[in-house]
């Protein structure tokens, strides 16, 4: 038995286009991002990869990407499950800041520590900051779980309970599962699936709007390490562009 998981980072957001740290700020897709989402759905349909169920974060760029992609694939009607545990990494006090200006102000080493180190979170955001989610009703029930900043290690710790309790059971029932989420929450899933080390994960970047397909064996280990992009060349170039943001 092979289980099929499709990971889809949201299409380009308006803040991706402006090169701003985004995290939990609930920005929408750009026109390019919407087109990427539609194209992702068309690619899924062409490849015969029709999701039975979709999991999304609570953020509109992922929700709208899933809706557009599933509509293009004629799968707009499938059941959906959402969780904050699939949200983007909370970028703390960097939320709303320009990536290039941050790199220039703090230097390459600090910038990369905040952006890609496994266990160094950016400084926490002030609850009254205009880009804080402290007063956002959708997170009102989180209590002490509500982050004010996260590193990738924190993302994996809050993502894994959803992976284990919601996504894995859906896969084991034989469903093709689509997960529409974010650069860093998906890096967490990939790290977990492929057993990537805390150091090597720094070099892994996920492009916007490109389906990444994992076929998993009985033990939920990937048949092809790293999974397979439906358009591998475009994905390689786009992942490199993500790696170079701020430069
Ligand atoms: O700003 C963010 O929330 C993320 C994803 O867009 O950026 P980065 O790739 O720098 O982690």
Automatic annotation (TrEMBL):
Assigned keywords, A-Z: Gluconeogenesis, Glycolysis, Isomerase
Catalysed reaction, written as an equation: (2R)-2-phosphoglycerate = (2R)-3-phosphoglycerate
Sites annotated Transition state stabilizer: 182
GO molecular function: phosphoglycerate mutase activity
Lineage top rank: taxon: Bacteria
Biological-process GO terms, alphabetical: gluconeogenesis; glycolytic process
Active site: 10, 88
PANTHER family reported in the protein's UniProt record: PHOSPHOGLYCERATE MUTASE (PTHR11931)
Similarity field: Belongs to the phosphoglycerate mutase family. BPG-dependent PGAM subfamily.
Protein name, per record: 2,3-bisphosphoglycerate-dependent phosphoglycerate mutase
Lineage: Bacteria, Bacillati, Actinomycetota, Actinomycetes, Micrococcales
Gene: gpmA
